[in-house]
Amino acid sequence: MSIMKHLAVTPSGLYNLSVGKIRAITFPMPPKGERERIQRKVEELMKACDVLESMLVKRQTLAERVAESVVAASNTR
Predict the structure, then answer these.
(1) Over the stretch 4-37, which tens digit does the pLDDT of each residue have?
(2) Which domain holds residue 10?
(3) Three-class SS of residue 9?
(4) Residues 24 and 35 in one domain
(5) pTM of the model
(6) 4 and 39 fall within a common domain
(7) How far is residue 25 from each of residues 7, 10, 29, measured CA to CA in Å?
């Protein structure tokens, strides 16, 4: 049984997590060096996502312009 589920069960069988019970839950943390490495990697990946998002927006805009040009060209025939 998970720690949260174990803490949440009441004598009546209902589940309830109080603030005090939540505060009592401990989470293992990696050493500081590992946390910093993870943070740098997350920041690097977020920057890559920003670049990809920008590229996607540019390509969507280009696709819309091409579609508009095709429609305009077909209307002049």
Answers:
(1) 787 787 777 778 888 888 888 888 899 999 999 9
(2) 1-28
(3) strand
(4) no
(5) 0.57
(6) no
(7) 9, 17, 13
